[in-house]
Amino acid sequence: MEEGTLKSPSNCGDTGPEQDFDINNWDVREGCEVRQILDRVADKWSLLAIAHLERRTLRFSELRRLIDGISQRMLTVTLRQLERDGLVRRTVYPVVPPRVEYELTPMGATLHTTIRSLVDWTEGHQQEIARARAEYDSRQGEADAPVA
Amino acid sequence: MEEGTLKSPSNCGDTGPEQDFDINNWDVREGCEVRQILDRVADKWSLLAIAHLERRTLRFSELRRLIDGISQRMLTVTLRQLERDGLVRRTVYPVVPPRVEYELTPMGATLHTTIRSLVDWTEGHQQEIARARAEYDSRQGEADAPVA
DNA sequence: CGGTATCCGTTCTGATACTG
DNA sequence: CAGTATCAGAACGGATACCG
């Protein structure tokens, strides 16, 4: 293994719910995992894998076909991370052609709402962002050389 | 500039709100920006910058001190991206010691709820994930050589 | 003060090849 | 089928130096 398999969770003391947005708490330097978990959850492949698994249990190759932009390597890595985080359960059936199934754990399933709100926001503001982007780029295009 | 300054927004046709979770829609290959926007929003530095700006308008150097793990380069890059996406407004005061202020745009402010739910989920499941991680790691430790 | 430009090591990722 | 191992290229991110 070579991927980001950062061990030693280093449980940080719960800071309590009353302080809204203790920003420094998200930071990696604090030894907390908020940031780290966020990265996993917001990760491109993780998000897609979870989304598909939200529908039903899937085999490795099924996921591969469904996500399809993904390489075998990244699918394996992603699935392993999700399994390690307890978001996905991996079941191996010791049959002649190996059969491995992946499904969301209860905790994994609770991500639905959260992810949904993120995607909703993004979809809802897609146009507005595109407009902002176009405007910004054209402002830059005045000073800088237009590519085409 | 060298950073991910992917131009040409390529506005993709709105697929409509009735279909819940059209997964392929998030994918980068579709030419849509959902994935891309998500990356921005979930980005470590973006998240921190937005969180601080949620409190009040800040100057460049103030942000730098507040985030503090960040390099000048990354702060600039992050702020520029957020500005381009229309999430942050940059105001330059042409005074002798240059003064530049950053503040959230109305759209940027709407991120609050979304980000909050993400962070809430993460904080709420931090312990459970840590436990899952520890368990997974120990399971691996049996088969693989314990480091220490 | 608030950047920009450059260099450069680290990380991420995809392609490829091999295995139980 | 479902991986693992290896390698190379691309992207990321920090340190540094210089500018309006």
UniProtKB/TrEMBL annotation, chains A, B:
Tagged with keyword Heme: no
One annotated GO molecular function: DNA binding
InterPro entries to which the protein is assigned, alphabetical: HTH_HxlR (IPR002577), WH-like_DNA-bd_sf (IPR036388), WH_DNA-bd_sf (IPR036390)
Alphabetically ordered keywords of this record: DNA-binding, Transcription, Transcription regulation
Domain annotation HTH hxlR-type: ranges: 32-130
Keyword Electron transport: no
Coiled coil: none
Protein name: Helix-turn-helix transcriptional regulator
Organism this protein belongs to: Streptomyces arboris
